[in-house]
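Tokens as discussed.
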């Protein structure tokens, strides 16, 4: 019936073909090539503007670190209560050690005797003479110089002056004698004004950034009180390598195109000590550098990274649905 109407009206046929034929060709073309590809330039701008790309590299600065006596290697710090060195602090928390070495934070080291530690009593004074009827508590031991009282001995003996309390925190080193068998350390960390005024430092709400998770430095969890999170690096887009059509399989992220691109880290104002290319990092003690490497708290501003982003249409535009940041780490390539 329509065909007959078109035959009867050549003018109507001409109008229909001019109106709908281009649309039909477009639909056929889209079906043949899998849909329009976003350009390299536009895909780069979309990736740069995405929340995933804008997410910074974070390190966490605790307010308080409670280090048990066996939380560090055996040393005078654990045996005699001396203050921890910067290397010992780095083995427990490299972030705090790096910031302390660069004068960005101050550290107060409080030490206290381990509950139940045996204590060497203070040497008795000459004028403290009473009949020996006093007993040491279970958590103390007699001095090696103590003599055994003979049966029928009526000579008065010196009594040790009670030692000072050991269960009260104080700054290192503690008074001697007595010496405890082991000491615990409590570090109180305070940022200096120059880092507090920086926009890179923010209160720590205790939640992990998925790309900058908290780690148990040294493989052992040590109690920490959340304090601040410090942004040490932002991403800098270099260029788009390729844009390809994408059909997700089961379990893969949704999207329609995949974009390979290059980017690199750029250190923040306060993040230079965590940049392996900076003089501030390279001047740190080698043991502190190694602890920072092991703790994965560093960035390298000279090394490009090859990553792959998946994009999907959203209305008339595009959005990033996922990014594989380590995509090119194990692939041979030249920049």
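Sequence:
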């Amino acid at each position: 019936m329509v065909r007959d109407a078109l035959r009867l009206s050549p003018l109507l046929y001409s109008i229909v073909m001019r109106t709908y034929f281009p649309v039909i060709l477009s639909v056929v073309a889209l079906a043949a090539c899998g849909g329009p590809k976003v350009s390299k330039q536009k895909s780069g701008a979309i990736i740069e503007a995405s929340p995933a790309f804008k997410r910074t590299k974070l390190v966490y600065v605790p307010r308080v670190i409670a280090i048990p006596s066996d939380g560090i290697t055996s040393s005078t710090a654990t045996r005699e209560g001396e203050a921890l060195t910067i290397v010992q602090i780095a083995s427990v928390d490299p972030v705090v050690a790096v910031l302390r070495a660069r004068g960005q934070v101050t550290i107060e080291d409080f030490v206290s005797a381990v509950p139940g530690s045996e204590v060497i009593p203070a040497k008795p004074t000459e004028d403290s003479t009473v009949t020996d009827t006093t007993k040491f508590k279970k958590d103390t031991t007699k001095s090696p110089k103590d003599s055994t009282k003979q049966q029928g001995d009526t000579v008065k003996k010196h009594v040790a002056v009670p030692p000072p309390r050991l269960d009260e925190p104080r700054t290192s080193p503690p008074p001697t004698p007595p010496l405890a068998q082991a000491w615990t350390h409590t570090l109180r960390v305070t940022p200096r004004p120059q880092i507090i005024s920086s926009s890179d430092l923010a209160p720590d709400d205790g939640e992990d950034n998925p790309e900058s998770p908290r780690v148990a430095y040294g493989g052992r969890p040590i109690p920490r009180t959340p304090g601040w999170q410090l942004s040490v690096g932002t991403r800098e887009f270099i260029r788009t390598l390729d844009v390809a059509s994408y059909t997700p399989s089961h379990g893969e992220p949704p999207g329609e195109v995949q974009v390979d691109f290059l980017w690199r880290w750029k250190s923040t104002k306060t993040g230079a000590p965590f940049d392996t290319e900076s003089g501030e990092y390279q001047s740190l003690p080698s043991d502190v550098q190694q602890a920072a490497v092991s703790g994965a708290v560093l960035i390298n501003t000279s090394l490009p990274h090859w990553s792959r982003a998946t994009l999907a249409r959203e209305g008339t535009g595009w959005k990033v649905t996922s990014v594989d940041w380590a995509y090119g780490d194990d692939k041979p390539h030249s920049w």
